[in-house]
């Protein structure tokens, strides 16, 4: 149950805008790997598709690019 609890906390932090770019990529990578992203609200699936389309995360849920702070 520990990992599910961690994901729930991360989802809440994401919704509150408390995650930085790297943490957001890691969260979405985890959600994609587990398949959970496709069962959540539509905004999560759309965000995942955007991250995949931008080449930041693979369809398998691997982070392939680091976010460079501006």
Walk me through the topology.
Layout: H1 2-15, H2 21-34, H3 42-53
Helix pairs in contact: 1-2, 2-3
List keywords for this structure.
70 residues, mainly alpha, 57% helix, globular
Find the count of extended strands (DSSP E, 2+ residues): 0
Coarse morphology: globular
The number of distinct helices, counting runs of at least 4 residues, comes to 3
N- to C-terminal distance: 37 Å
Return residue spans where pLDDT drops below 50 for at least 5 consecutive residues: none
The tally of structural domains comes to 1
Q: State the major sheet.
A: none
Please state roughly what percent of the residues sit in beta strands, choosing from under 5%, 5-15%, 15-25%, 25-35%, 35-45% or over 45%.
under 5%
The rounded Rg comes to: 11 Å
Overall pLDDT level: 91
Kindly name the structural category. Answer: mainly alpha
Order of helices and strands: HHH
Share of helical residues? 55-70%
